[in-house]
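seq:
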Amino acid sequence: MLHKRRIYYQLTAEPNTTATPSLAELESEVEQRSAVFKKELGLFDLVLTQVVFVVGTIWVGWAAKLGSQQNFFWLLAILTFYVPLAAAVIFLSRLLPLEGGLYQWTKLAFNDLVAFMVAWNLWVFAISILAGMGLIVTTNISYAIGPSAAWMKDNKSIITVMSFVLVVAMVVAATRGLGLGKWVHNAGGLMLLVTFAALILLPFLGLIRGTVAEYHPFAMQVPNFSLFNLNVFSKLALGALTGFEYIAIMAGETRAPARNLTRSVIIAAPIIAVMFILGTSSVLAFVSPDNVDLIGPIPQVLSIGFGQFGWVGKIVSLAILGVVMRQIALMSIYLAGNSRLPMVAGWDELLPGWFTRLHAKYKTPVNSILFVGAITLVLGLASLVGVRTQEAFQLLDNAGGVFYALTYLVLFAIPLWGLKRFGVRAPFWLRLACGSGFLVSLIYIGFTIVPIITVESRITFAAKIIGAVLIANGVGLGIFLLAAKRTRQRGIAESAG
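struct:
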């Protein structure tokens, strides 16, 4: 409480206080609306949720494409993006721990239009990631079963059925709320930690058995910079090392959000960094950069490494199922967060009030959950039309990455420029860090149209991504303008009445 009073003092300390009432009123209104939610998430839940959300299992495969240069680029990504992101999220979470997270921060710092477009891009990003989950889960299950199931990875009928089952299950779980969802997240987090422990220990077991000739996980090679390794670096930064701000969307359902969100980032960040760096080294101990499976690199390595242990290697199936559990938990997190964004936009009358309807028993945004589930399924099936599965995956991933990067440009802009209207000035070191994060985000956007795998047409690949981003943002802008028009007309009618 003392911290909040100090923040209010800072926000009202400037002579120009014309915007202060709206700030205080908005925070109060959001907190009142959030009061109906059960405070399900504690520090332990948040730490495991951060691990599940940030540690994407595909990224050790992307980093492995760099070969012996991977440690250099992981550290570069951590210093130029990961640390700035963590610092910005901690600063803003302590300042404004509100349900809706980045949407609310942007609304306070800039205006309704920027806030809506941030929420829209974050929403579309999450939808694109959700849409690819059927493909990822099917790939991982095929590795868990063994070589006899290799055909599953490219069978679109199996992927379609898996996508449908996953979406329906996640919609049901999301409707039940975080009381159930947090256990899915926690189970996914624990299983992911166990799986990464097995992955990290595997090369050492190989050294003991003589199946691995040498292993140097911390070897550092300064690279010759090229467009290829800068492309992969940007993916590591804005693909692998992202997500801290997404969990803040559920601040209204968190106990002591200002304190626990901050602590969860501080605890999870070093764990996540170690998992990525050592995990990539393990991939390179068993697979050459050219042969890495970008959809399922961890199952690929576990299958190779444990396959040399005879009957003990059967344990690999359990470890791979840990990856599957993580993907299911990630779907649950995305669906939970993505259903809250239309809800908070509905609070501000930027979307129909239909999206704000809560389940009578579980107090979850049931209409928003159903809408997100339906869109996810349609987009996931549409992405499989006319392309190979690896290309479909990268199309979804790259297009989603642009939407996410656009939200990061705004996130880093808030400490740089957005808080001046309230008389709050971020420390110089934070502004310097946010400047670095802003620049890396721009680099990532530039590289998204460049695939790192062989595709049927590089021009078509780039055109699909650019077109998807422009069309999606055009739709979002149109929705906002229509909502603004309705609000003006309603205001005129009320004034006339």
